[in-house]
Amino acid sequence: MRVPFFIALRYFFSKSKQSIVNLINLISIGVVLVATASLFIVLSAFSGLKEFGLSFSNSFDPDVRIEAVQGKILFVDALQIAALRQLSFVQAATPLLEEKVFLNFRNKNHVAYLKGVESNYQDVVPIDSLIVNGNWLINDFDEVVIGGGIARALSLGVYDYTDFLTLTAPKRKGGARLGQNPFINQTALVAGIYFANEEIDKKYLFAKIGLARRLLQRGENDYTFIDLKTNGQQSLVSMEEQISAVLRQPVAVRNRAQLNAALYKMLNTENVAVYLIFSLVIIIALFNVVGALIMMFLDKKPQLNILFAMGLLPKEIQSVFFYLGGLISWVGGGIGIIIGALLVLLQQAFPFLFVPGTSLAYPVKFELNNFFIVFSTVFVLGTCAAFWATRKMDKKVIGD
Are 64 and 239 in contact (CB under 8 A)? Predict the structure, then answer.
């Protein structure tokens, strides 16, 4: 097959006497180039948007979360937590209480989840990076940090000493006798407001674990979760076995992707959809390659008789045009990937596209994974297009 390939190379680089044939070839390469560059740029932009969107989730969720298998409360003492922190893969660990509570402020109501956290919570989850107004829990009195959605719903600001936020939860111990209030109330000052995303901002607020224990009537060893910062060197199965041995009870261990399963599934589905749409664009672009091969076959028909007389078999002559179609697709696709990669790297290093109405550079991310996906797609589809266009050319050579 070396001779057909070298002949295809000569046809690819030589100019035809018919200018229209040269123009069709250039258009075919150009269309494949643009389609390939577009696919790579779009996938890189989606990777950038995905990383940008997950950065807020990464600042809100731990690397790993420990949950109870039975019920929703973990019973863990201080010695067990200390032993947990000594595990080789654990960099930091913090227990917390979480429960749904009722919020009231100046006759405005909202339901949210209260997270009672300890002082080392920021060592595990960098929540302070999301605070846009006020401060984290730094004072000795009762205070909370709320999401921007909660702040809008209740018209709340930070350090408003004229009125306090009221947190309400149902009584657990002993219930309530007839005529008694079945709820427990606690008041707190709003110390800070954070922004993560629309769903989280209206769903969660933070307080010190002491306030959460009083409101939820929980003991010193009662926790809803234990959040971990890990070194990422252990599998979930291995971590679950070691943690269960330390805590002396069966537990469930979930990573960040499992905690945000719906979000990751949505992003992966959108990524696949974008890839399929632009793959269809490449398929449409490859129809130009089919047309170019047909024109080249008609243009080179006088030379085909010479090649046939020189001893080339019809199948080998067919291979000439197969390689020619492949070269048009592969060269156009290769140049397109290079141009797309250069534009993506340029946007990363020296942003020239910005989100409309802001000074925020449009996020893109160069990934080798995207590079190989685009290259494989163009190679496979280009090969299929060349094969389909030349599948009966050997019979036409014999017929002529």
Answer: yes
Nearest to 385 by CA among 333, 337, 341, 317: 333
Cα diameter, the chain: 109
Looking at residue 180, its amino acid is Q
Averaged pLDDT, 74-87: 92
Residue 295 is encoded by which pair of tokens? 């024109």
Structurally, how many domains does the chain consist of? 2
Q: How many CB atoms lie within 10 A of CB 383?
A: 15
- Give residues with Cβ within 8 angstroms of 4, minimum separation 6: 312, 316, 317, 319, 320, 322, 323
Give the pLDDT confidence score for residue 228 in this predicted structure.
95
Residues 128 and 8 in one domain: no
Least confident of 10-24, 241-255, 317-331: 10-24
217: Cβ contacts below 8 Å, ≥ 6 apart: 169, 171, 172, 173, 184
User: Could you please report the per-residue DSSP string of 142-191?
Assistant: -EEEEEHHHHHHHT--SS-TTS-EEEEEE--SS---TTS--EEEEEEEEE
The whole model's pTM is what? 0.75
Encoded tokens for 275: 């890839």
- Name the nearest CA neighbour of 28 among 292, 256, 376: 292
Domain membership of residue 120 as a residue range? 64-256
Which run of H or of E encompasses 244?
A: helix 236-247
3-state helix, strand, coil in the chain (%, to 5): 55, 20, 25
Give the separation between CA 360 and CA 354, rounded to whole angstroms: 6
Does 215 lie in the same domain as 73?
A: yes
Which of 209, 230, 256 delimits the end of a domain? 256
Q: How far is residue 335's CA from residue 37's CA, in Å, rounded to a whole number?
A: 8
Cβ atoms of 191 and 55 closer than 8 Å: no
